[in-house]
Design goal:
Elements lengths: L5 H9 L1 H15 L6 H15 L2 H13 L4 H15 L1 H14 L6
Length: 106
């Protein structure tokens, strides 16, 4: 299982009932449709990137790597975002991806 950030771990310990409900909701959402695990992980990454959420992007990268997504596939998501989010946002997201999954250019 991907390791949560220290902040999330602290929240989980301080609010175990809320964390358990959140985790159950996440499990239900993942199981609610026909997408395979890899597709879901890539979509979650794209949503976090598009929302400009650094922590969520880091988390999505860790979960995607755990699910077998390659660093090259993660980078491809950032490249695809150039024409939708713009170059600066795509490069911001790429830097967040490289925080968790260093690429060849790092």
């Amino acid at each position: 299982m991907a390791q949560p950030s220290d902040h999330n771990e602290n929240f989980r310990q301080a609010h175990p009932t809320v964390w358990k409900a959140f985790a159950k909701l996440a499990d239900e959402c993942h199981g609610a449709g026909p997408l395979d695990d890899k597709s879901r992980k890539l979509i979650k990454l794209a949503m976090a990137m598009a929302a400009g959420l650094e922590g969520a992007t880091h988390s999505a990268v860790r979960h995607a790597l755990e699910a077998g997504v390659t660093p090259e596939e993660l980078e491809h998501v950032a490249v695809l975002s150039i024409t939708t989010l713009g170059y600066p946002a795509a490069m911001r997201a790429l830097s967040w991806i490289h925080d968790q999954a260093p690429g060849e250019g790092d």
